[in-house]
Amino acid sequence: MIHLYIKSLGILLFNILWMIGNAQYLEIDSINNISNATGDDLYPSWSADGTKLVFQSNRNGNWDIFQYDLESDTVLQLTNTNANEQYPLWLSKQNRLTYTSDKTGVEQIYFLDLLTGTEEPVINRNINTKAASFPVSEYLLYLLGYDELARDWWLYRYEFKYNSLKQIYPLLDGNHLPKVSTDGEYIMFVSNNTEKSVDQLNIINWYGNIEHEFSDHSFIDPSWYPDGLKIIFVSKMDNIDGEIYTVWKDGSHLERWTNDTLVVKNPVVSPNGKHLAVSVLLDGGYDLFLIPLEYY
């Protein structure tokens, strides 16, 4: 179990106690805050080897994409425009990213080549799109697209080989981002269950049929664990401020990771399973923290 708490002894100390069994604990302080900047740092995404991550930040006024290198402990700004670049995703097999930009007046998804700095649209279609999610194979992607006729957001699947864009599932709003499993077999997203007044988690297969629906409590910012078996997420089921949990994709083995009064968002485990990246609300906004997981 992880315990997150803040101590004030002249400087901010951010401590995480990680208990294994009954005896072992891991304590981490504010040195694990990789942000230390005003504004919000959100939506981290890991490189395939787990040595770098990208995230969006509005520390300069609008949303830009930044990169953090764990080995050199450095932050590099990747975009610097008057537009908003959001929802970065590090692609697994190539030295490039995707992100969503509104520079044309509508949201569209772009590739960014990290070697050349060039960008290009992912899909050449007249449609408002955002929040790409790829399986490891990267032969297709899932994304949010706005249907102008229906006036609703839909989950779409795009196949690069056939230049095929297909509606998969209605989402009704664009606030809940789809996440595809590494093997490409399942896509999860959150939707509002008005009957139970919760944001329920839905898992569908690659052709759009529901596999699981979890509506016992609200799910916030779910992401896949590297093994594809578990899901890590935030929920307010035990605490109004929200805690971090994991659950198997079949709904079993629910485990609570934190017990504190902190507000957290966007928990993501690195592909090698060595670190947890999570945004933590402090006085100046959401800062990004890296938590080692070697002993868990």
Structure characterization notes:
- With 296 residues, this protein is an all-beta fold.
- It contains no helices and 25 strands.
- Strands 3-4-5-6 form a four-stranded antiparallel sheet, with no helix packed on it.
- The N and C termini lie close together (9 Å).
Question: Largest sheet at a glance?
Answer: 4 strands, antiparallel
Q: What structural class do you assign from the helix and strand content?
A: mainly beta
Q: Which strand order does the major sheet show? A: 3-4-5-6
Distance between the termini: 9 Å
- What would you call the quaternary organization? single chain
**Radius of gyration from the alpha-carbon trace, in angstroms:** 19 Å
Secondary-structure element sequence? EEEEEEEEEEEEEEEEEEEEEEEEE
Helix coverage percent: under 10%
Question: How many strand segments?
Answer: 25
Number of helical elements? 0
Poorly predicted runs: 1-28
Please, what is the average pLDDT?
85
Shape: globular
Portion in beta strands: over 45%
Topology:
Layout: E1 2-8, E2 12-18, E3 41-46, E4 52-57, E5 64-69, E6 74-77, E7 85-90, E8 96-101, E9 108-113, E10 119-121, E11 129-133, E12 140-147, E13 152-159, E14 164-170, E15 179-180, E16 186-193, E17 198-205, E18 210-214, E19 220-224, E20 230-235, E21 243-248, E22 255-256, E23 264-269, E24 275-282, E25 285-292
Antiparallel strand pairs: 1-2, 3-4, 4-5, 5-6, 7-8, 8-9, 9-10, 11-12, 12-13, 13-14, 15-16, 16-17, 17-18, 19-20, 20-21, 21-22, 23-24, 24-25
